[in-house]
Amino acid sequence: MIWCIFAILAGFFVSLSDALNKKYLSSLDYPYMVIARTLGSFPFLFPVFLFLTYKYNGLNYFSFPFITDVSLLLLLEILATILYMKGIKLSPLSLTIPFLSFTPVFIILTGYLILGEKVSTEGTLGIILVVIGSYCINLPSIKEGFLAPIKAIKREKGSFLLLQVAFIYSITSVLGKKGIILSNPIWFASFYFSILGITSTLIIKIFYPVKLWEFIKKHYSSILLVGLTQGLMCYSHMIALSQIETAYMITLKRTSILFAVILGYFMFKEKYILIRLFAVILMLTGIFIITFLR
Predict the structure, then answer these.
(1) DSSP code for 105
(2) Which is nearest to 208 in space by CA: 21, 32, 27, 18?
(3) Burial level of 242, CB count in 10 A (0-12/13-18/19+)?
(4) Banded pLDDT at 132 (limits 50, 70, 90)
(5) What is the reported pLDDT for 197?
(6) Tens-digit pLDDT profile for residues 122-131
(7) Who has greater pLDDT, 8 or 294?
């Protein structure tokens, strides 16, 4: 069950990273938040990649299937990260992050198509509870009608963006598992997220008028803080993912929604905390059904 610990740690570190990014850098445009999230973790990942590559001859992992997998993964991850940072900039954490709980729902399909993974009946029940919980996130709008909480998802731009991210993550999570199968967890985490940091920064620099060096010099402490928490998430994520089916690991990692609601309240004084905690309890019930009753 050690995978459970690492999956929950991944959820905690990603929610803390998001909160710190929003607190210190959301006053800037979202491309800067993307750079902090990806390039900020580079100093904590790349040295590990160099060490493991030297010690275990990691260059042998660069097969054609591995390169193909990583290339597709990078394209999707960069798109998801841009949408993700834009979403948490536009809307409260407690109203956006919970929509990542849809990733396990989408993984039922992607995990089966790409890796042949199957989810049990109990697992499916747990995932349904996650979906119901996401409906309850928008319960304050139910006075406008029974379907209002669903319509609110599209009306709240950040929530709708994170729902799109959840779908993309349902693919990248499975591709990440494939990358681990073709290499090993720690090496893959240090390699992939290092490359992601460089590639995403280059793309941001090409398509957005960012002042990269000025940004780094002025906000280096915030960037490193976000990067450290993101780096710890990367290692925890890959270790957990290497030990269990993708759908189960990602579902447990979504305890990040609980941490996001709590951090949103204490750091940003976000509203409707009790209703959103109730929704989170439904989601976590689904998560524990998946984890312990599957």
Answers:
(1) H
(2) 32
(3) buried
(4) confident
(5) 96
(6) 777 887 887 7
(7) 8
The model's pTM is: 0.87
Question: In degrees to the nearest 10, what's the CA dihedral of 45, 50, 54, 56?
Answer: 20
Alpha helices in the chain (DSSP H): 2-25, 30-38, 42-56, 64-90, 93-96, 103-115, 121-136, 148-155, 157-181, 185-207, 212-241, 246-253, 256-268, 273-292
How does DSSP assign 49-100, residue by residue? HHHHHHHHTGGGG--HHHHHHHHHHHHHHHHHHHHHHHHHHHS-HHHHGGGG
Locate 78 and state its tokens.
């960069």
Rama region for 54: left / alpha / beta (φ>0; ψ in -120 to 50; rest): alpha
For residues 195-233, one letter each, b for 16 or more C-beta atoms within 10 angstroms of the residue's C-beta and e for the rest, the string is: bbbebbbebbeeeeebeeeebbeebeebbbbbbbbbbbb
Query: 18 is written with which tokens?
Result: 């998001």
Q: In 3D, which of 23, 146, 37 has the Cα closest to residue 92?
A: 23
The closest of 10, 2, 1, 4 to 173, measured between CA atoms, is 10
Q: How many CB atoms lie within 10 A of CB 107?
A: 30
